[in-house]
Structure formats: structure tokens, C-alpha cells
Design a protein that fits this description.
The protein is built from 11 helices and 8 strands. With about 350 residues, it is an alpha/beta fold. A hairpin with a 4-residue loop joins β5 (about 130-135) and β6. The longest helix is centred in the last third of the chain and has 27 residues, at about 310-335.
């Protein structure tokens, strides 16, 4: 075997192994009109919010140059998008038929931009927006989420109290090597309980899934990260917890997809650890305090308005419709018989004859 062929084979094998063992973005559920292509195209972690926006039919500030997402339908949008970020593991044993892609540069991200878009476009509707990180007790709810998840335990104290009540996951999960008395184990089990309670509350308010406003859910689970820190990734506790979480995520995706009539996108992001974003602040030599003024000497453009595309289409098609209307009217007037089609000439001819 020639040396170049050996190098190419080794490079390809290294890419495959990196894709298997590295951080992943997995699409558990998606409608037929949201197409994810099969392949191993890496996606930057900072582009995950843009991917969520595009799957929901929203525009983004910068084009997403990623071939994994195909062109979708212009007349249909998903009723919900659920993004679950799992920290502490690079990949989970999820179904092999699910679309999965390598995730590079896994910096912390939020879906605040997507939530703001939903709030702007559907302010008069009833969207459900929930962003929750149980380990950090971070919660953000908007719209009907305050009504739907009013009884959802969000603090660690509330979730642990929920574990001792009826219907707790402790009565159904195979705990195996996990213990109910360790803090790291309880944190992981609390996050699984949150997934169960969210599905139960969505089933109770199933009528909200039929409205026109899309819903958004963002969950961050750090229980596996605590288990890895306490027991190690080779421990039986960590291995058992990954199997439990993989099963819980599949059931969660099935339940959410059923609530929204198979019109929901469910993504899972698995990262061993989030990297600190590297940013560099620079000052342009053309920077000026008068940049936003119309009389700027640098001829800068006005700030882009996201309604520009909408206004442009309205004006364009209105002008086209008016031009076609004028053309049709002019053609009919040109080919009109004044003595037969016009009532004015007809009455005039009769008056002349009578006189």
C-alpha cells in the first residue's frame, strides 16, 4: 500500500472516531417537512440557536452555511422545538436512525434570540416558552408557560420533594448502582423527574398545542457532569445513569411529538464540557460617533430592519397586481364596442333617433 493511501485512510479513520466519541447534536424527532440530511457535517456550538430558528421557519441575521439542514416547506412550520443540552457526556446511546452530527467549539448558548422572535411575531397569540436549568435553578417562562407549568417544581428543593411523592420516577426507574442518599445521584434523578413532569403537564394542556403560535422549550441537564466528577466516567453509576437518561430522552421525545401531532422538532446536544467563548474586542479605524447619523462621512448603511423582507414582498406583489389590473382594464376598453357595450352610447343613439 502506498504511503499517501495510508495517510488518507488514517485521516478518515480519525475523523470517524472523532465524530463518534466527540460532542454531538442529535435530532430525535422532526416533521417530514423539516429535512435533516444524512452526513457527518460538523456544526459550531454558537450556531445552534440559528439552527433552531431556521427549523422553526424564522430568519437569522447571518446565513447558516451548514449542509445538514435541507430546504423545508414554505407553508408549514413546526408547532414546537425542544432543545435539550446534556453536559458531562459526549454522546448517548440514542436510536441509530436519528440524525446525528458532530458538534465543534461547544460554547455556552441560549435561545433568547428565538424566544424574542416568538414574542415579537406572536405577541397576540398564546406561545409557550420555557427555558430551564434545574442544577442552576435558572428559569425563564413566557406566554402560556406560566399557566401550563405553574405546578412544575423548578428549584432543587422542590424537585427533591417531588421525588418522594406519588408518581415519582423513583418507583419506575431501575436505579441499580444509583443511591437516593447521594447529592450527585439525586441531582441526576431530579432532572429525569423534570422531564417526566413536563410531559405530564403538556398532556394535561394538550389544547395549547393546536394554536398557531409555535412553542419553545430549552432544557439544560448537568446531572451526568456531577456524576462524572464524583464517580468517574468508568464507574457503574455513570454507565447506569447514561442508559437511564437515554431511555428517558427517547420517551420524552415520543411524548412531546405525540402532544404536537408529530409536528415538533426535538434535538439533544451532548457535550462533555462547555468551552469558554474566545472573543477579541477590536476598534475599527473608521469608528465614529456619528456612524448612525444620515450625514455620516463614511456613508454607512442604515440599521437593518427584520421587517424589510415582509414590507418588500407586500409592496412588490401589490405593484404587480395593480399593473396587471390596469393592463386588463386597458385591454378591455380598447376592444370595447361603443354602440354595444356602452350604455352611454346606446342611450344617446336612441335619443337621436327619437328626435
Amino acid at each position: 500500500m502506498h504511503r499517501p493511501s495510508v495517510l488518507v485512510t488514517f485521516a478518515a479513520l480519525a475523523n470517524v472516531l472523532a465524530g463518534v466519541s466527540g460532542d454531538r447534536l442529535t435530532v430525535l424527532r422532526s416533521p417530514q417537512y423539516v429535512r435533516f440530511r444524512e452526513g457527518q457535517w460538523p456544526l459550531s456550538g454558537e450556531k445552534v440557536p440559528d439552527l433552531v430558528s431556521l427549523t422553526m421557519g424564522f430568519s437569522v441575521q447571518e446565513d447558516l452555511d451548514w449542509p445538514g439542514l435541507g430546504a423545508g416547506s414554505l407553508f408549514q412550520r413546526p408547532r414546537a422545538n425542544v432543545l435539550i443540552a446534556v453536559r458531562g457526556v459526549g454522546s448517548l446511546d440514542l436510536p441509530s436512525n436519528a440524525s446525528s452530527y458532530p458538534l465543534e467549539n461547544p460554547v455556552p448558548f441560549t435561545l433568547d434570540s428565538v424566544a424574542n422572535t416568538i414574542h415579537t411575531l406572536f405577541a397576540e397569540s398564546t406561545p409557550v416558552v420555557l427555558q430551564l436549568a434545574p442544577s442552576q435553578e435558572r428559569l425563564y417562562m413566557m406566554g402560556m408557560a406560566n399557566t401550563v407549568f405553574e405546578d412544575l417544581p423548578v428549584t432543587l428543593q422542590q424537585i427533591r420533594a417531588r421525588l418522594s411523592q406519588d408518581g415519582s420516577v423513583l418507583h419506575t426507574l431501575p436505579l441499580r448502582s444509583l443511591s437516593r442518599n447521594n447529592e450527585a445521584d439525586l441531582l441526576f434523578l431530579s432532572e429525569v423527574q423534570v422531564l417526566h413532569d413536563i410531559c405530564a403537564l403538556l398532556l394535561r394542556h394538550k389544547h395549547l398545542a393546536r394554536d398557531q403560535a409555535p412553542d419553545l422549550f430549552s432544557l439544560e441537564l448537568a446531572g451526568l457532569e456531577e456524576l462524572a466528577r464524583r464517580y468517574g466516567t468508568d464507574s457503574s453509576q455513570f454507565q447506569d445513569s447514561t442508559k437511564i437518561l437515554a431511555t428517558a430522552l427517547q420517551k420524552f421525545a415520543d411524548d412531546v411529538s405525540g402532544v404536537y401531532g408529530n409536528n415538533a422538532v426535538v434535538e439533544v446536544v451532548t457535550v462533555k464540557t462547555f468551552e469558554a467563548p474566545l472573543t477579541r474586542k477590536a476598534r475599527s479605524i473608521l469608528e465614529s460617533n456619528r456612524g448612525s447619523n444620515p450625514g455620516s462621512p463614511y456613508n454607512r448603511a442604515y440599521k437593518y430592519n427584520f421587517d424589510y423582507a415582509v414590507i418588500f414582498n407586500i409592496v412588490l406583489w401589490l405593484v404587480i397586481a395593480m399593473a396587471l389590473a390596469v393592463l386588463v382594464i386597458a385591454y378591455n376598453l380598447w376592444n370595447m364596442d361603443p354602440g354595444y357595450d356602452s350604455i352611454i352610447y346606446r342611450m344617446t343613439n336612441q335619443k337621436i333617433r327619437m328626435d
